Amino acid sequence: MENAPPIERRRVGDTILAVRVLAMPKDTNAAGDIFGGWLMSQVDIAGSIAAWQAAGGRVVTVAVNSFRFIKPVLVGDLVSCYSQVTRIGNTSVTVDVEVYAEPERDPDAVHKVAEATLAYVAIDEDRNPRPISGI
Ligand SMILES: CC(C)(COP(=O)(O)OP(=O)(O)OC[C@H]1O[C@@H](n2cnc3c(N)ncnc32)[C@H](O)[C@@H]1OP(=O)(O)O)[C@@H](O)C(=O)NCCC(=O)NCCS
Q1: Rounded distance, CA 15 to CA 126, Å?
Q2: CA separation for the pair 71, 18 (Å, rounded)
Q3: pLDDT in tens for each of the 135 residues of the chain?
Q4: How remote is the CA of residue 31 from the centroid of ligand 1, in Å?
Q5: E strand or H helix that includes residue 68
Q6: Across the strands, what pairs with 120?
Q7: Which residue's CA is the closest to the ligand 1 atom numbered 1?
């Protein structure tokens, strides 16, 4: 894109649609439904994007403080992860992620499938915690 908009600096309360992805057959468990670990990975990516934008740079996941699978995700579901920055500390950012699934391209069938709270730490080039400035 020639004139891509600049990445906004996220603040507490900001919510973004951080990840949107189609659940594929390769992401299934032995029973044929979507593997929970795949969903956890999408959630971590979604949380890290909001945390990166809040911290103004590189972050690492320090904790998954809660994770709830509410309903199963099935092959073909369009999965959307919404990330909300809930706290910006000295070096850490806390993010709530809510996940919704849309089966068979039917917007009326969208339903919540998971929710999680994750913590990220801003790090410097030596991987040490970095104070978050400019907020
Ligand atoms: C993240 C890491 C740099 C933190 O280093 P540390 O010296 O333990 O840092 P601290 O104990 O000073 O904690 C740093 C911040 O994290 C917060 N934190 C630590 N554990 C936390 C938890 N369980 N939940 C929420 N916040 C937490 C602290 O409160 C602190 O926040 P603040 O500065 O905003 O007050 C270090 O633990 C690390 O490198 N971990 C591995 C990260 C990683 O590789 N993740 C990907 C796994 S594949």
Answers
A1: 30
A2: 20
A3: 677 767 789 999 999 999 999 999 999 999 999 999 999 999 999 999 999 999 999 999 999 999 999 999 999 999 999 999 999 999 999 999 999 999 988 889 999 999 999 999 999 999 999 999 876
A4: 36
A5: strand 59-69
A6: 61, 93
A7: 62
| pTM given for the model | 0.95
Cα(112)–Cα(11) distance, integer angstroms: 24
pLDDT value at residue 52: 97
Ligand 1 binding site (Cβ under 6 Å of any ligand atom): 60-63, 65, 89-92, 119, 121, 123, 127, 129
Name the residue with the closest Cα to ligand 1, atom 37: 62
Task: Specify the ligand 1 atom closest to the Cα of 62.
Answer: 1
Q: List, in order of start, the domains of the chain with CATH numbers.
A: 15-122 (3.10.129.10)
Q: In sequence order, which residues have a C-beta less than 8 Å from that of residue 71 and are 6 or more positions away?
A: 101, 111, 112, 113
Residue 128 CA to ligand 1 center (angstroms) comes to: 9
